[in-house]
Design a protein that fits this description.
The chain is mainly alpha-helical and 232 residues long. The chain has a domain of 157 residues. It is built from nine helices and no strands. 28% of the residues are buried.
Length: 232
């Protein structure tokens, strides 16, 4: 079936809902990562703490504590990457089973749409999951780079190389965390996109709900208040 033949099964509401989804995903990520200094996001605040971590790392002896933290961060990326791989495999198996797709469609909606409609909807969900997987894998690798750079920081705090190299480790750590956060946001939107199985209107509401959840956690959460030094 040609691409244009497949698109005819999707109405203007579906295309509008997809546009809202794309704008929400890209816009939310941009706002979080480029938040103003007057109202920083949790991600921006944590970047400053990561830089401070590396400054304290230079004078900490021994440095086992820092290695343990970095190991825990890498374990987190591994867990989510593995979960994404399982989800991708399960999703592709469902896409390849037309009979199960049609049965799912009958349970969720009264639409008498062909299986290709449900396949496309699932593929959009899997696109978010696949993007999350790639972000988690890259984050895992960057945390590995960070560990190597940290190991290259001289033990003597007075060494002229110590602080600049620790600063390099801090920036790599921040980049790894940014990739990890992007992976998490992709998973949030993948879950929100599940509502498209019910129709375009539920997808719009689910997308707006996802944006609201992300906005609250980044700009209006208790954890942000603690990071700002303003606990309730």
């Amino acid at each position: 079936m040609e691409l244009m033949d497949r698109l005819q099964f999707f109405g203007p509401l579906d295309l509008a809902a997809l546009a809202v989804l794309a704008i929400a995903y890209l816009g939310t990520g941009w706002l979080i990562e480029n938040a103003s200094a007057a109202r920083p996001s949790v991600s921006v605040l944590m970047a400053d703490y990561r830089r401070e971590w590396m400054r304290q790392f230079v004078t900490r002896q021994p440095r086992i504590f820092d290695a343990t933290i970095l190991g825990n961060l890498r374990q987190g990326t591994t867990f989510f990457a593995s979960g994404c791989m399982i989800a991708i495999g399960a999703g592709l198996a469902l896409v390849g089973n037309t009979e199960r797709l049609l049965g799912l469609a009958q349970d969720l909606s009264l639409e008498n749409a062909p299986s290709v409609v449900w396949e496309v909807k699932l593929l959009v969900i899997l696109l978010f999951v696949a993007n999350a997987f790639l972000k988690f894998v890259w984050s895992h690798r960057l945390f590995g780079y960070c560990s190597v750079i940290m190991a290259a920081v001289p033990n003597e705090p007075d060494d002229p190389v110590a602080l600049p190299r620790a600063a390099q480790a801090g920036e790599i750590n921040i980049t790894a965390a940014r990739s990890f956060n992007r992976g998490l946001r992709s998973l949030y939107f993948a879950l929100g996109t599940l509502a498209w199985l019910l129709g375009p209107v539920p997808l719009v509401f689910s997308t707006l709900g996802t944006v609201l959840v992300l906005w609250r956690r980044e700009f209006s959460s208790d954890s942000r208040a603690v990071l700002m030094g303003q606990p309730d």
